[in-house]
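The protein record now logged underneath.
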Amino acid sequence: LAEGVPTVPPESIAGIQPASVAETGILGWRLAETITPIQSRQELEARLTSAEEFPEIDFVSPVFLDSRGGSIIVTSTLLIGFEESVSPQEANALLTYFQAGEVLDEGWGAMRNTYRVATGRLSGLEVLDLSNTFARLPQVRFAEPDMIFNGSASLLPDDTGFGDCWGLHNIGQAGGTPDQDMDAVEAWDLTTGDDSVIIVVIDTGIQQDHPDINQIPGADTTSEGPGDGGPVNECDHHGTLVAGAITARINNALGTVGIAPDCRSASARTFISVTDPCNGGWTSAVSWTVDSLVFAESVGARVTCNSNGYGFESSSIATKYDQTRTDGMVHFAATGNSSEDTIYYPSSIPSVNAVNAIDRNGSLAAFSNTGVGMTFTAPGVDIYTTDRTSSDGVDETSFATVSGTSLATPYAAGVAALVLSLFPTATADDVESYMQISAVDLGVPGYDTDFGWGLVNALGALSAPSPPTLTVLSITTAELSGGAVITLIGQNFGQSARVKVGQVDAFVLSRQGSTAIEAEIPEGPGENVVVDVSVLQPGGVSTLPSAFTYIPNEPDLEHSSGNPSIGNVLFLNIFGEAGESFALLADGQRGSCVRSGITLGLACTPKLRIVHNSFGGFGGNDPPLGLLGKREVSFRIPNSEDLINRSFHMQAVVRDTGNARGITLVPTPVVSLTVLP
C-alpha cells in the first residue's frame, strides 16, 4: 500500500473481497482474496492492471503457494548475480539495456558481482518477467525477486519446569539411557568455550538483557530494523529459547547452561513472528537472511544457527551461505518437525549442516525430519533452556522446557563453537570433519539419512587421539576405480577414523580393531587423476607414500525395486562423480514438467510426486551427487487406475563439473518402467 494508507479501501478493488484483507506481518503489505477464482494469465493481468489504477496501491502481486501451503509474494526489488567473468561495465550495460531500474546496492550482500535493483514496476508479474529475462542470460548466475515468504520455527513447546539437561549429561534421569548425551561435562574439562568465538542466531530475536545468556549486541535485518536484535512483538520467543542451548552461562547459580557457555551468541533478527495467535510462524524476505549473514561477517562470527524451516528456496540465500562457508564460517540449520523424509530449507543447502533430534534414550524423535542431506543429530526432546523473562516468555520463570529440532540445532552449533575455541585456526572443513568422525554412530552402521554421521559428541570432537599410521593398501595395482573394496592396514585407527581418496571420502564398511579398515572406493572423477590415499582422525592424518591413478566412472541410472505399482514409491539411484550435479528426465521432459519439490511429469501428464527434493535443473542450486558419487531419488506413483500399464522412460543427465562453464552434459542409459496394478 502507498505510504500512510492503513488498509485497503472498502470498495472492491480488482475483484478483491474487502473482508478478506489480512496482515502479512510486514508493514504496508496486505493479503487479500479475490471474489472469483482467476482462470488464466490474461485474467490475472487484467486484475492486476485494474488494481494499479488505485492511488492507494503502490504495488500488486499474485500470491504463490509453497509446498507447505505458505505464501510467496513477489516484491518490486530484483536480486541479480552475474558470472565472475562479467565486468561491472558489462553488468551495468545489461541492467540499462533491459531497463532493470535503479541500482540500490552493487556488491549486495557482500557478494561479488551482485546487484539489488528497485525495478519501479507496479506488478509482480512484470517483475517475474524481468527476472526470467535476466535468468536466461548466459552472463547471469541467478536472478530472482526479493520474495516475501513464510516459515516456522522448528520447535514444539512442552510442559514447563526445571529440566535436567540430559542432553549435556545423561545419568538416566526421567527414564533416560545413561550416557546417551553429548559428553558436555567431560568436554568442559578441556574448554567451556572462548568469548572470541561468536555464534550468530538467525531467528526472531534474542532478549538482549537476559541474565543467563552470554551474548553481544545483535542486529535487526527485517523491515522493523535497525535494532539491537532483541524481540519486537509479543510472539518473538523462539530466538531466546535457541540461544540458551548454546551460550547460557555456567556457574552463575541461575537457570540452565548451554553447550558452549563461555562463547557468545549474537542475534540476527531475521523473521517477524506471526501474532494473534503466537503459533511459531513468521514472515520474512530473501534479502533479510542474506543481510543477517552479512552481519555475521561483520562481527567475525565463526558459526551460525538457523533453527527454522523456510517455505521458499533462494539462489541468493544459497550463494551467501556458500560464500561464507568458503570463507570459514560453519553453518547449522534444523531439518524440521513434520516427521517427513525430506529436510527443510535452508538445512538442505549443501554448505549447511542439517540437524535433527533424538530423545533421552537415543531414539529418533518422532517429529524429526530425515532424508537426503542429513548431517548430524543432537538432543532435542525436553530441553531446558532460557526463555524471555517475566510475563514476556512462554513461562513466567524466565526458563522453559521445550522440544524440537530447534533445540538440537543450537547444540550441534555449540559443539562447533567449542572446537573453534580449542582450535582457533581450524577451517570450516576441519570443524565439520572433527564433528563427523567423532559423532556417535546411530542406526545402520556408517552414514545414513536418518541420523547423518550420528550424535554430535563434544568430547570426541575436542579430543586428540594418537595419530594413525597407514602402512599397506590391499591392492597390487596402481589404479583405483569406483566400487572397489580395499583394506587399509596400519596402527592406531580410531573408531572415528575416515578414509579419503584424494579429496573424496570413501565409505567405511567395517573396522578390525585399531589395525584395519575395510572401505569402498567412491565413484571415479571425470578424468584420470593422481590421488593419495589417507586415514584421517582428530589426532592426525596418515598418507601412503605412493600415489594412485583414480579412474573415471561413467554416469549410470539404476533401480532395484522392479516395476512400480500405483500408490507405491519408486526408488532410483544416480551414479557419477562425487560432487557433480544432475537433472532427471521423464520421457525426455524437464523444465516446467520436472520441478524440484513439485511434480515430475511423464510428458507432463500424468504426474508423479517427488518424495525426496533432491534433483535440480542446472541452476544456481543444483544438488551434487553425494557420497560415493551416488544420489537416491524417489517418487510417489499416484494411486490411479488410469496409470496401470502405462510405460515411461527415465534418464539422468550429469553435468561434468570439470568443465568451467558447466556445459558438458553426459546422459545415463535409459531405464524403462511400466506401472503395475
User: Anything to note?
Assistant: The chain is about 15% helix and 30% strand. The first helix runs from residue 41 to 52.
